[in-house]
Amino acid sequence: MNPLSKKERLQIARQEMPQADALKRAGNFAEVNLGFDPARALEESKRCLECAKPACSAGCPVGVDVPAFIDLVRAGDYRGAAAKIREANVLPAITGRVCPQEEACEGGCLLQKKYGSLAIGHLERFVADEERRTGDLGLPPRQPPTGRKVAIVGSGPAGLAAAGDLVQKGHAVTVFEALHEVGGVLIYGIPSFRLPRDIVRGEVENLRRMGVEFQTNVVVGRTVTIDELFGEGYDAVFVATGAGLPHFLGVPGEQLNGVYSANEWLTRVNLMSASRFPDYDEPVFDCRGRDVAVVGGGNTALDGIRTALRLGARKAYIIYRRSEKEMPARVEEVRHAKEEGVELMTLVNPVEFIGDTQGNLTAVRCVRMQLGEPDDSGRRRPMPVPGSEFTMPISLAIIAAGTSANPTVQQTTPDLITRKGGYIVADTESLRTSKRGVFAGGDIVTGGATVILAMGAGRRAARAIDDYLASGAWTVEPAAAAV
Asked: Are 18 and 41 contained in the same domain?
């Protein structure tokens, strides 16, 4: 229990996250946010109002008992706090860094409007970092073995969340990953200055300690099919392959050398050691001393341009067709980018990439935009301003215009119903698909979303799989009640 009165709690200012110097960090891949120390964590934990009906927990997509773990932080029981979080969230060191808490748990905090929300994400990260520093792991207990086997396709946030819940239930869980390292988008799609590789590897190792098995370099749909997994004795399969097929703009010149998708750019940097050049061969375009532009306004766009800056870009631009207010990226990430020297070119849209006679990118032609009536997304539709075209020199362009479903699993599982874009049709609650024993969730069902929403889907899938393994019932009509 919090010994302070409500008045005393309200007098404590929200504790801000220490961060690396902007000019120094823009030249390296070290983590930007530096984390709380115990004194700062204790001070922040005292701010909790201990609401009778905590909106923070209700707003958490994975259902973390926020007041309970905050109370344990305040008591100095960091191991207990880690175990409490991990009952619902097996990746606290990750979500403490990349979850948009301002839209979830912190968004419901009663302190938000007048005093600033309780820094739930910062405290979650603190607990996980203390656990890692001391080696005193707060792992939840595992129920006795059930003798049932579950295959999980994809080791991104949805797959890892499902694996953590299912192994706690006593099931034998194997996660299949197509790449050579476990983590999915967490390891290849988010740069290390936001989410260090060692943090992801540590959380994966904790899942191994809990009993999850991982197999890498296995492309389900090619190396082995869904039906073959059932033939090997798996009782259920959860498809969590994400949505990693990149979109392009469809404008002239996108085939030029020096035009990347954000997926390829970040994967090459994160998994092929581009950040360690010249100790490793450069697996991406050498942007040292060159002008670079990223097209898009989401977190991936910010990740792409901040990565280019750290690889030596002379000028770093974000080209976004709406205003800064409409950017879907986290406010913190936009602020960090601007602090580091990224220039936001808002209300601007590319219409053509221009190259030289050798096929190398040299410039981008853009048009200025103005906002019209709202479109299907609820944001005002950007419209071109007649006669406003202009050209700017760049040597590298990175397209961060969204993604769609990877089709590999669907192509080799003909009885799996899909919808437009190749996304798998699954029931909104149980995540059951048209194929008995197969569940699907995360971006492969909904399209691109946040890490924490994918984890929420993984948890729902785990509950439904556990129910299915207990009952054997398969009654849903996914085409009638689908995402």
From this structure: yes
239 shares its domain with 253: no
What are the φ and ψ backbone dihedral angles of 176, each rounded to 5 degrees? -105, 125
Within this chain, do residues 107 and 225 fall inside the same structural domain, yes or no? no
The span from the CA of 384 to the CA of 25, in Å, is 36
One domain for residues 366 and 313: yes
CA distance 401 to 326: 15
Q: Find the domain containing 110 and state its range.
A: 6-134
For residue 327, being part of any structural domain is answered with: yes
CA distance 14 to 11: 9
Residue 447 pairs in a beta bridge with: none
Q: How far apart are the first and last CA of the chain?
A: 41
Domain end residue (candidates: 375, 402, 429):
402
**What is the SS3 string spanning 91-142?**
CHHHHHHHCCHHHCCHHHCCCHHHHCCCCHHHHHHHHHHHHHHHCCCCCCCC
Q: pLDDT band for position 477 (50/70/90)?
A: low
- Listed in sequence order, the residues at least 6 apart from 476 whose beta carbon sits closer than 8 Å to its beta carbon are 427, 430, 432
Confidence of residue 473 (pLDDT cuts 50, 70, 90): confident
Q: Is there a single domain that holds both residue 388 and residue 295?
A: yes
In contact, 126 and 72? CB cutoff 8 Å? no
How far are the Cα atoms of 349, 351, 386 from residue 368, in angstroms, in the given order?
6, 10, 8
Q: In Å, what is the CA distance from 208 to each residue of 167, 199, 200, 202, 457?
A: 10, 14, 13, 10, 21
> Is there a single domain that holds both residue 158 and residue 29?
no
| 129 and 274 co-located in one domain | no
Please choose, from the candidates 100, 122, 26, 97, the residue with its C-alpha nearest in 3D space to the C-alpha of residue 338.
Answer: 26
Q: What is the mean pLDDT of the chain?
A: 93
This prediction's pTM: 0.92
Percent of the chain with pLDDT over 90: 81
Q: Are strands 348-355 and 361-374 parallel, antiparallel or unpaired?
A: antiparallel
- Domain with residue 40: its CATH number is 1.10.1060.10
**Is the bond preceding residue 191 a cis peptide, omega within 30 degrees?**
no
Question: Does residue 200 surpass a pLDDT of 80?
Answer: yes
Give the Cα-Cα-Cα angle 315, 321, 323 (nearest 5 degrees): 90
- Of 367, 402, 437, the position where a domain reaches its end is 402
- Is the pLDDT at 100 greater than 50, yes or no? yes
Domain count of the fold of the chain: 3
3-class secondary structure, 277: coil
Residue 141 lies in a domain: no
Tell me the two tokens of residue 336. Answer: 């960090």
